[in-house]
Structure formats: C-alpha cells, structure tokens
Design brief:
The protein is of the alpha/beta class. The chain has 2 domains: 5-204, 2-enoyl-CoA Hydratase, Chain A, domain 1 (Alpha-Beta Complex); 208-256. It has helices spanning 31-45, 79-98, 114-121, 149-157, 159-168, 174-179, 192-204, 208-221, 227-242, 245-256, and strands at 5-9, 15-20, 52-57, 61-63, 103-107, 110-112, 124-127, 132-134, 172-173, 185-186. The strands form 2 sheets. Strands 1-2-3-5-7-10 form a 6-stranded mixed β-sheet, sandwiched between helices. It starts with a strand and ends in a 9-residue tail after the last helix.
Length: 265
Amino acid sequence: MPETFRFEDADAPGVKILTLNRPERLNAVNWTMVRELDEQFRWLVDHPEVRSVVLTGEGRAFCAGLDIKDPASLDQDDTPHAYELQEMFGRMCMHLNEVPQPIIAAVNGVASGAGFVFALASDIRVAVPEARFNMANVRIGFSGCDLGSSYLLPRLVGSGLAAELLMTGRFMGAEEAERRTVVNRIVAPEELLDAALEIAGQMAQNSPFAVRMTKQVLAQNIDAPSLKAAIELENRTQILCTRTNDFMEAMTAFQEKRAPNYTGS
C-alpha cells in the first residue's frame, strides 16, 4: 500500500483515480513519492485492463513541487548520489508521459514545479478556477528547465511564453492557462472530478488498442520531421488496428447499432 497516494477504482469500468495524498504538505513530492509513483507507472504498462487514469491531489493543492523542507530532498555532500536521485525523478515523469493509458489531470489547486510537470505530462488537463501553475525552481536557485518542462511546455504554449514562465517562475492562473491551451477546460471545484471522469469514461468506451495507438502516435508525431513521416506512421498504425479482434467487433457493433464489447485483443 503506497504511503504517498491512493490508487482507486472509479465507477466507470477500466478507469482509475490516482490521488496524491500528502495534503499536509500540499502534496509536495518527497523521494518516497518519486519511488512509489515510478513503481505505479511501471505497473500500468503491464496492466492494459486499466483503460484511463485521472490524476488529482488531496486537499487544496494538486502538487506544490519538491518538498524542500524534507531533509532528504537536497544532498549537498554526495554529488553522484544527488544526480542519481535527479535521474530517478526525471524517469518517473517520463513514465507518466509514456504509459499507454491516457492520463487526465484534475488540477484542484496549485500545480508548482514537479506538480506543473505532472500536469504538462498528462494528456488532458481540467482545472478549477483557483488553479495556478508555475515552475518555481528558478526562484530558489534551480534551473526552470526540470523534469521535462523544457520539452513539454514549449509544445503547448510556444517558445516565447515558455521562456518567460521558466525564467521568471511567475504563476499562470487558470484563466490564462485555458486561454494558452495549457488547460482544456475550467470547471467548478465540485464538478472537477466528475468532469475528468467523464472524459476518462469516454476514452474507456473505445477500443483499448486504438486509444493506445492514438496516444503513441500523437507523442511521436509532435516531433515528426515532415508531414510525410507523420502520415507514414499513421498508415502503419491504421493497418495494425484493423488486425485486432476489437476492430472487427467495432465494425459489427456499428452495423448492428449496439455498443461494442471490447476485449483488448
């Protein structure tokens, strides 16, 4: 049983809720959380029966970033060990982005530093009006480029705004985040989880392999060297999809005007 988060079934079949659970520290990340989340994301790779995941935070914050009050967070004496910890942190964020299941971030408050990256690495972001986003790292002596922020943020907002946010550490409010397409939509706090679960449930109604391939191709083609290269990858993926039992079930269900019964095969 993890110490730093809850991983629970939602009402929708195949949908899970992952709730960061250190509310007394605004869900700030310590090394126990890094290790536990890394293990959880690795577990997801081997469990395709989980169709989508909603990521949120307990209490009034989504995630306030690295818990710098934890004495284990900063190792000033052993540089190789400190670098190993940083690499583990980075791999954990990479796993979040690369798991085959779509991740919907339900941002219930401040998302700072690592919390901002957790949101950026998710596939979709829903937020409350009180949500705020920033890379506070640069304000406390770290680089603003951390855990993939320098890769993920420019792809959402462009290089100019990304440079401003990463170099100043200023907060972006929910309204600006929606306007800049960081956030897909803003909803009232009492509607946040339901809104995220609705999206997750809609995804879970589709063919598991088709959703997995859609996430994978989107991730690859954002850096495609050309339109031709992007379409070639799409072509291969489409033919792979037609070779699944779920594709045949989708075609049959469409013709019979009923909901498909997907098996993940």
